Amino acid sequence: MTNSEIAPHIHYIGVNDRTTPLFESLWPLPNGVSYNSYLISGSDKVAIIDGVEVSHALEQIDHIKTILGDRTPDYLIINHMEPDHSGGISLLRSAFPGLTIVGNAQTLAMVKGFYGVTDNTLAIKDGDTLELGGDVTLQFFLTPMVHWPETMMTYFKEGKALFSGDAFGCFGALNGAIVDREMNTERYFPEMVRYYSNIVGKYGQFVQRALAKLANAEIEMICSTHGPVWQEEIDRVIDLYNRLSQYQPLDNGVTIVYGSMYGNTARMAEAAARQLALEGVKEIVIHNASVSSQSQMIADCFAHRGLVIAAPTYSDGLFPPVAALMKALTVRGLKNREVALLGSHTWSPQGIKMMQKYLEAWETEAVAAPVSAKHAPDHNALTQCAEAASALASKLR
Ligand SMILES: Cc1cc2nc3c(=O)[nH]c(=O)nc-3n(C[C@H](O)[C@H](O)[C@H](O)COP(=O)(O)O)c2cc1C
Ligand SMILES: [Fe+2]
Ligand SMILES: [Fe+2]
């Protein structure tokens, strides 16, 4: 008996991780994460699509045995080799010695490199199909660099289900429900923006290519490797990915990120925030870069069209936590934002100069001249901060 059948021929065999504090040792997991995996059975053959992280592999093997009884799985299809999905390969092969590993040439090179596996593999190419029997046909779409070079998607033709790998995934473990229609999905959408911007964000153009490739496939179910299975909200999820991967902001809100040791720069940021609110900007998020997680700051910068960055000069450079964020945004190629810069210093305004260098890399011109305060910001400097905020607000209207 098993209650994990989510559609005809498809069982959910993923696991929840509510223990790991940082995904990839970088990104906070306040609500955990799921490593989704699926079992798809035809009349002749059974395939596992993506595995789980190694510490959950035995749990998964047990689940597979419960579902299959006397049958054993024939294929392990690897859409993505990141170890959160491939870590259990060796244990799966020991439990099911007949298992053939299915992947493209780049996948199989990684299977060899990571796990020393060279036998019992099946190399597939873009567009190839695999018949499991009884009207269960799988087709492979290579979607490189979403977000690793070997990434691909597997499409169950008759079932109109897309096994998308990390694409359309999000942070947040599954609390009993698996498919979107069984749950309130609202809390997963901000976590999709965070997942996308943190992990996939650099590869927008490749996501766009993948979306174009999928444009003609009829999709009634998206089975990604993290978070809910999407059925009712497919359009919303694809639209979100489409916008994020074109670096389009999701709303006209403003992210304010400031760094401050003794409160001078913080006051400048607060003055800007107050003016934005007075001019009708309703969505304003303020981060003290020394306190907030970089993960959430990146996500907010991807979500909102407006961005205020405020930082002091530090050791002839930019205050480190703000520099780190600007670097992270540069790596991800953030663009299409309206930006205002504020800074303070005591003997040379080096911080502002470095912020301007980053802006050049983003091919972005600030909405106003940067405000640079020497020592504590005086009335005049705070008025300039409000004016810069005003210029930003009018760009957002
Ligand atoms: C450790 C440290 C290093 C600093 N390095 C510089 C510097 O290289 N150039 C400069 O003009 N000011 C420097 N400052 C001064 C600060 O930039 C200045 O006091 C600023 O107003 C601090 O802003 P805050 O009150 O928001 O922290 C430094 C301050 C500290 C504490
Ligand atoms: Fe991944
Ligand atoms: Fe993943």
How does this model look, in words?
- The protein is an alpha/beta fold and 397 residues long.
- It folds into 2 domains: 5-245, Ribonuclease Z/Hydroxyacylglutathione hydrolase-like (Metallo-beta-lactamase, Chain A, 4-Layer Sandwich); 251-392, Rossmann fold (3-Layer(aba) Sandwich), CATH 3.40.50.
- Helices cover 35% and strands 24% of the residues.
- It is built from 12 helices and 22 strands.
- The chain has helices at 57-68, 83-86, 89-95, 105-115, 188-200, 204-214, 234-245, 264-278, 294-303, 320-331, 350-361, 379-396, and strands spanning 5-7, 10-12, 15-17, 22-23, 27-28, 33-35, 38-41, 46-49, 75-77, 100-103, 121-123, 129-131, 137-142, 152-156, 161-165, 221-224, 251-258, 284-288, 304-314, 317-318, 338-345, 371-374.
- The protein has a 7-stranded mixed sheet with strand order 1-2-7-8-9-10-11. Strands 17, 18, 19, 20, 21 and 22 form a 6-stranded mixed sheet that branches. The chain has a 5-stranded mixed sheet with strand order 12-13-14-15-16.
- β21 (338-345), α11 and β22 form a beta-alpha-beta unit.
- α5 packs across α9 and α10 runs parallel beside α11 (350-361).
- The model has no long low-confidence stretch (mean pLDDT 98).
Strands, helices and their partners?
Blueprint: E1 5-7, E2 10-12, E3 15-17, E4 22-23, E5 27-28, E6 33-35, E7 38-41, E8 46-49, H1 57-68, E9 75-77, H2 83-86, H3 89-95, E10 100-103, H4 105-115, E11 121-123, E12 129-131, E13 137-142, E14 152-156, E15 161-165, H5 188-200, H6 204-214, E16 221-224, H7 234-245, E17 251-258, H8 264-278, E18 284-288, H9 294-303, E19 304-314, E20 317-318, H10 320-331, E21 338-345, H11 350-361, E22 371-374, H12 379-396
Parallel strand pairs: 8-9, 9-10, 10-11, 15-16, 17-18, 17-19, 19-21, 21-22
Antiparallel strand pairs: 1-2, 2-7, 3-6, 4-5, 7-8, 12-13, 13-14, 14-15, 19-20
Helix pairs in contact: 5-7, 5-9, 6-7, 8-12, 9-10, 10-11
The structure holds flavin mononucleotide (FMN) and fe (ii) ion (2 copies).
